[in-house]
Design a protein that fits this description.
171 residues, 10% strand
């Protein structure tokens, strides 16, 4: 099957998913299981891979190896987005700036590849939403938390990750 696109899975998901999944993570578990055979692959950059190696559960390490063997992992270079970094430097609260910088590699990959991020990190989403007022390109990103009520990630995946029914960061 030819892949129709990619998505990013944050290490927060890779860390949280064990086998069996913890209570409240059944949508996340089902999502990664469906990614094995669906039309969407996952994006992996060196920075993201490093996070996965440090934080992933054994289940997700095996899952990633299975995805690799199925040629469902796209390997991309880490690249900084200069104008995003300039806006980020102007964030006044040092704690918020540090939090955004910690996962800037996810945001930059999503911006450059125009793909969604699947993450359990709602704080990051809130921070990026606020930053989107100053950096409009962020408003086009999808940041999906499979544990959130109302965010049916399985419907999203079956629709090949379209934004139908899903909010972008600015909404």
């Amino acid at each position: 099957m030819k892949l129709s696109g990619y998505t990013i899975i944050d290490a927060s998901v890779a860390k949280a998913l064990g086998n069996p999944p913890a209570i409240g993570l059944h949508h996340s578990y089902e999502l990664v299981q469906r990614l094995k055979s669906g039309p969407i692959g996952i994006c992996m950059t060196p920075s993201l891979n490093e996070e996965w190696v440090r934080h992933s559960s054994r289940f997700m390490i095996r899952w990633l190896a299975s995805m690799e063997s199925r040629r469902r992992v796209g390997h991309f270079k880490d690249r900084k987005v200069a104008d995003f970094r300039r806006v980020l430097k102007r964030v006044e609260d040092p704690h918020i700036r540090a939090a955004i910088e910690k996962d800037a590699h996810l945001t930059e990959a999503a911006l450059l590849l125009n793909i969604a991020v699947i993450s359990l990190d709602n704080k990051q989403r809130v921070y990026l939403c606020a930053l989107a007022e100053r950096y409009k390109k962020l408003g086009g990103l999808q940041w999906i938390n499979p544990t959130e009520v109302g965010e049916d990630c399985l419907v999203w995946l079956s629709g090949c990750c379209s934004d139908q029914g899903f909010e972008r960061l600015t909404q």
